[in-house]
Amino acid sequence: MKRILIIIFIGLVIRILLMLFIIHPDIRGHNLAAYLISQKGEVFSFYDYIGKLPRNNHWAEMYHDGLFIYPPLAYLTLAAPMGIFGSLYPWPAFLTLVNETGLLKLDPAWPWLMFLLKLPLLIIEIAGFIWLYKKINSQKRALFTVLWSFNIVILFSAYMMGQFDLVIGILIAISAVLSTQKPSFLSAVLLGIAAGFKPFPLFLLPFLGTNAGQKIKYVMIGLFTYGLIIAPYMGSAGFRHFALVATQSDKLTYAKILLSGSQYLSLFWVGFAILLWLNYQKFKLFPVWGWFVSVLLLFYSVTHWHPQWFTWVSVLLVWTVVHKKTARFPIAMLMISFFAILMLFEPSLNFGMFNINFDLFTWINLRFPGDELVSMIRAGFLATSLITILSLKEA
User: Fold this and answer.
1) Which residue of 38, 70, 282, 362 pairs with 79 in a disulfide if CB–CB is 3.0 to 4.6 A?
2) Which helix (H) or strand (E) holds 386?
3) What is the pLDDT of residues 31-66, one digit of tens each?
4) Domain parsing of the chain, residue ranges
């Protein structure tokens, strides 16, 4: 137990240091919405706020009308603590963040501001870790703790970028674990709640339930939960136009095989349909969390995903490593591929976070075609994903 506590302490210190001293521009939009909700009372109208500003207003010029593109929970989750503990926030530093980010580090309160803006994610992560930790066999808890504490995906997305994808990953993992013994009503509800941050978890709903009747029931439960979350915002033109349908949904059909000038086979939908049939006919082929991992790895294998999206599966990958020895090496290769892809993204997602003016992609591109290299890495990722999925097969 002492070793586990030491590991947790080190992981916590790393998180706090990243929270305090790393700034990524994406943190502005999410927390600007939280600010409008908690400090301006725009609980149901924040999606339309910027669009209604005079066109010469600084925010209207700096941002765009479709700044808020995610479902409501992405912003309400951050707005709640901002409203409750508003007196603790250094508001001049916050306004500098959203108005002129480059000047923020001139304000001595900026580390405290970064800590407060990312703190809700830390609290949610701790709660999720404790819940999942209790579900782990005592002999495997040390490994689980190490893998969780030093999970580079979580450290990057939550505490460097300040993104809320960690919440989605935790909800998906808890949903899957709840259904380990039998399909759970609460599993479907949790996936519906996760969709209240980003809609993709809705794709996991059909993988709950052992027969058609159960599957339909759990799909309806998840959709109903998601519907309750978005219902208060259906009257908002901004929500309907920018957030109701995910702006990156076209990524699902970008990888395709042309059948004619206008018709094609989407690799994602073909793979998704195959997994659905397998799940329907051979439900016990994988544990429920194995089906979830399979769908998520399919998504990452055939789409140009943003690095923070990999957080959705990262918690389940930790769970998988703990429970499936055969999957450990393939998952290690997936993590290496993730890191390589991350380092070859735009500098603001890697070296730029540490104020290092270096673009690895450009440097490589002068010596070897950069896009060809990334394509090779993604091909390896797809192949490794297939091997990982096969290793999840139940004995």
Assistant:
1) 38
2) helix 370-391
3) 999 999 999 999 999 999 999 999 899 999 999 899
4) 2-323
